[in-house]
Amino acid sequence: MVWKETVKDVMRETELTLYQYPVWKISIENQKIAANIPLYKERTSPAYTGYPSTTERMAIEKVTKEIKIQQIEKSLEILTEWERQYIEEKYFNPRHPSDYEVCEELGISRRTITRLKTPAILKVATALNIPKAEECLTEIMMKKWAIQGGHHDQTRENPSDLRTV
């Protein structure tokens, strides 16, 4: 039970990060547009407080978002084509479609989505260095490998070839 809760926690954190991706991309683009217009003025005083200024905070937030965006984009490279399509349709779509709607859009069954979802999200979580993600992914992959009779075939791209974990 503890292990299942850990997987749920890792997946929840990863899903939140994935849902934020399109917002961060727009935010960065808007900051680039606004960079040419002085929208705020840095306030300084004779006594330095040691706290970051508004400008510094905005710069830190921008860099943090840019790093997360790059990490997410890089993490998509390790996914199969089906996993990547699922992640992009489910989490980067502004409509926030349900899994059922994603199935319809991709032309695959609900059962197939169920088999794709957990490993795909855990791969992304591991690439994003989310705590406990690697252990969860290893456990899932070991179970999947055992179910397949010890045969691990990474060449499969068709999600209907996957067995339930």
UniProtKB/TrEMBL annotation:
InterPro entries: ArpU-like, RNA_pol_sigma_r3/r4-like. This is Uncharacterized protein. It comes from Thermoactinomyces daqus.
